[in-house]
Amino acid sequence: MGGFLNPPGTVVSTGGGAATLGTRLAYASPSGVVAAAPAGFNSGVGRLLVTLSADTTWTALTAGADGQLLEVKIVAGNFTLTLPQADFGGVGDIGLGLNNGILLYYDSTAAKWEVTAP
Question: What pTM was estimated for this model as a whole?
């Protein structure tokens, strides 16, 4: 059974306690319209801490494991990261500014990251 924090097919390990997202990875995103490919990104990463040097649009993000949850948060740079609806789902393009974040999950059938909720 799926839901906001547990999309269909997602297995969340709680270890008897609260669910966790995994390790943090800092990422200085290139600017412009890019397919984001953070060095060191793998299925254990649960938080992507993004630094922006200009307004940026991601058309894709490195593939994850099926059902992997990922928080993308802008931690530095007073610019906007846009996640287009066509590439990440949701109800429209999503714009994230400084100190804003969003939760994504990876759907291996669709082969893309998707917004967990509008």
Answer: 0.82
